[in-house]
Amino acid sequence: MKDSYLSIRSLSVDYQHKGERVRALESVDLSLARGQRGVIIGPSGCGKSTLISVLAGLNAHYSGQVLIDGNPPQGGGDTALILQDFGLLPWKTVWENVILGLQLRKKNPGQIKKTAEAVLEKLGLFSLAKRYPAQLSGGQRQRVAIARALVLEPKLLLMDEPFSSLDALTREEIQDFLLEIWEETRLSTLLITHNIEEAVFLGQKIFVMSSGPGRIQEEVENTMAGEGHLRGRVQFLEMCSYLRSFLHRRENNAAGA
Ligand SMILES: Nc1ncnc2c1ncn2[C@@H]1O[C@H](COP(=O)(O)OP(=O)(O)OP(=O)(O)O)[C@@H](O)[C@H]1O
């Protein structure tokens, strides 16, 4: 059996809203091997962001067991989180944004310079180092957000709808780019998306969630993820169509309930 890097067992999360209990996640089981790319897909409100916030160490109010490399989520450290709006500080340059996390971790200036230069070079961003986020395209901003995560040398990369504000072509370019980075780093990655094609293109393991409360309804092993020229292939379209019908079935059931 593969070494399970991320292991979630019977995870439930409740929120309190106006004195009422809102169950956001119920009995979620999920595991990811070291170096695997997992994708979560599901309808709005099924608890995807709640799940990511638990994994990122931002929400400790849960029941069940959550282990990342054998330890409960702590935030910072070995886990990097990339959000939908990229989270870049508009008043700082690309360089300043990228080194921020290293400065917060009190790395020495020589080490910061060396690490940041290497990552910016690798991601093709070095020539943009002095620009501000507003002077970048959406795709470039997303690459800066990825650079900012990679300089911290995380062991787990969490991404919450990271490409949703990009146009379709840029989105595909960044998906290709993420695969290239993954080939080099073999970083364990869990990505949330609403986009079925993105899930099939990137996810070696795809978790389909349903809502009310959020559960994992289906787990799909997707061996074709990451293969070249995948998007036009029949198997790719078939897998997209399978997931689409599955998600629609869930929606229809929910509407009829
Ligand atoms: N702070 C909160 N207080 C009360 N209820 C909350 C809170 N945050 C989330 N919820 C509820 O928990 C459920 C899951 O929310 P969550 O944001 O995790 O879903 P999601 O799948 O990420 O949604 P989306 O795809 O729309 O971003 C929803 O029913 C939501 O209304």
Automatic annotation (TrEMBL):
Keywords (A to Z) from UniProt: ATP-binding, Nucleotide-binding, Transport
A UniProt-annotated Pfam family: ABC_tran
Domain ABC transporter: start-end pairs: 8-236
Keyword NADP: no
Signal sequence residues: none
Superkingdom of source: Bacteria
Gene Ontology molecular functions: ATP binding; ATP hydrolysis activity
Annotated SMART domains: AAA
UniProt name for this protein: ABC transporter ATP-binding protein
Species this protein is from: Formimonas warabiya
Lineage: Bacteria, Bacillati, Bacillota, Clostridia, Eubacteriales
